[in-house]
Design a protein that fits this description.
The protein is of the alpha/beta class. It has two domains: 1-81 and 158-254, 3-Layer(aba) Sandwich (Rossmann fold), CATH 3.40.50.300; 90-156, no CATH class. It has helices at residues 46-53, 96-107, 112-125, 141-152, 171-188, 199-205, 225-231, 235-242, 248-252, and strands spanning 8-17, 20-30, 35-40, 61-66, 82-84, 159-163, 191-195, 208-213, 218-223. The termini are far apart. It comes from Edaphobacter modestus. Residues 8-239 form the ABC transporter domain. InterPro entries: AAA+_ATPase, ABC_transporter-like_ATP-bd, ABC_transporter-like_CS, P-loop_NTPase. GO terms for molecular function: ATP binding; ATP hydrolysis activity.
Length: 254
Amino acid sequence: MPLPRPHITVDDLRIGWGTHVLMEHTTFQVERGTIFAILGGSGCGKSSLLRHLIGLEQPQAGQIDIDGVGEPSRYEGVPPFGVLFQSGALFSSMTLAENLALPLTTWTPIRGATARELVHAKLDLVGLGAFAEHLPGEISGGMKKRAGIARALMLEADLLFFDEPSAGLDPISAVELDQLILTLSRDLGITVIMVTHELASIFLVADNCIVLDKAAKGIVARGDPRKLRDESEIPLVHDFFTRSSSGVFANRGG
Ligand SMILES: Nc1ncnc2c1ncn2[C@@H]1O[C@H](COP(=O)(O)OP(=O)(O)OP(=O)(O)O)[C@@H](O)[C@H]1O
């Protein structure tokens, strides 16, 4: 039987601006239904890579293919993925239900009772069924992130991108968010790509990862983060997975 096609294929990517090259010869794949973490010290290019994967910026060279369709910028109409930025990016003057209905009114003809049902189903999925009429300012940071996830799922995307999902959350909310990400992947088969610094989160949820390094201009390690932690003989990879939050690697990129 042929192997299933990866959900994302990145081939010999070069990211840079003018003569400045941030990352080159960057090749990796993300299997469907898995949780994939983009890791590395500050300034190594994690967020830049994420912006390229979702088509906000164009690479200097190389290819990004999502679902065999081609580069993200080539999509017309509904994007085939959801994105959750650090802030959650909810509109503060709109209720959670109104925020979640926005993708439907922007991209589909669905309105009225059907729209309300879809909104409530997604709020239930993230445990916010009782908060439909609340404004973002009336709920906690963790709840805002979960509402952002619900909104990112409104168009039934099977691919989600997260930039620092647990940034700014207390430890309990961060664990709840990790559990939700695991549920989305394990129960719904959604592929998750996340940029994160949080070691606890990486070890709990990520199936696979790449570790980027600024000096190396690209990937220095890849694979199961728990195996990399226990077995990698590359000093900076070992430092990354065993550091305290103010450790050596965190300051490397500068
Ligand atoms: N549009 C741009 N033009 C020029 N340089 C850029 C641009 N975008 C990012 N950079 C540079 O690329 C480098 C990597 O930035 P990026 O935010 O991707 O790193 P990061 O690994 O996500 O860092 P952090 O963990 O601190 O958020 C930085 O030096 C940044 O200044």
